[in-house]
Design a protein that fits this description.
The complex is a heterodimer of chains A (81) and B (192).
Chain A: H1 4-9, H2 11-15, H3 21-33, H4 35-52, H5 61-80
Helix pairs in contact in A: 3-4
Chain B: H1 2-5, H2 9-31, H3 34-50, H4 61-81, H5 83-86, H6 110-113, H7 116-128, H8 132-143, H9 148-155, H10 159-181
The chains are: A mainly alpha (81), B mainly alpha (192).
Chain lengths: 81, 192
Amino acid sequence: MLTCKQFLQELNDYLDPCTDPATKCHLEKHVNECPNCFVIVDTTKKTLQVYKGVEPQNIPEGVKARLWKALEKKMAARKQA
Amino acid sequence: MEKARAGDRDAFAALVSHYERKVYRLAKHITQNEEDAEDVLQEAFLKAYEHLDGFKGDSKFYTWIVRIAVNEALMKLRKRKGDRTVSLDEPVETGEETVQREIAVWEDNPEQRYSREEMQEILDSAVQSLKPDFRTVFMLRDIEELSTEETAETLGISVPAVKSRLLRARLALREKLTRQFRRKGEDVFAHL
């Protein structure tokens, strides 16, 4: 059986849906038998979920206005060229 | 995209509108500075517009603009802090050392307990506490959803380095968020 340290080194593979079934099964065995690593897996998944669930905030109006001003200037210059 | 490449300004403007928030977020997370993030945002889209002809249709526009933005952001960081602190080519520790880990289950649906702004602050603050090497890889892989190979290519580092940094970043964020979201009254701590 893997130690916790060995399992944690492979945590990304465990979370990766593309990992081959044999590797996954080997890692799963440790998760099923180790309550600490079970919690680490669960809370790591939740960590990724909360980050993925947050939409980017709107850009401050001033920043947006200056971006468009710069782009319009560039576009106008290209048109003239 | 084809229209934008053919010089259609409205088509390019639509691409900017679609991706500007994500590019700004990425720039802000990497540079940790609003002024630098604004510069990166502008430079990224200006360069993209300038080099639209060179854009290869076989990659996604977003992956392309992210690469430009990351390069700009890293240049800002280097200018501001000096190369030594942000060299992405330096070897990093691989997480072999013993780390005291906080093991505790989370409260149910923490997203519902905090306002959107509070949640944003908690998540941003956790990312900001990561070293630049780690937070850049985390942003590219887990937030912008670039592949491991695309991330390695964008940052000019090896695939094993991306994997190692991503693992460290994920575990560090998990630790920080666990301190915030752990279920009260049922703490279980363990040291691995």
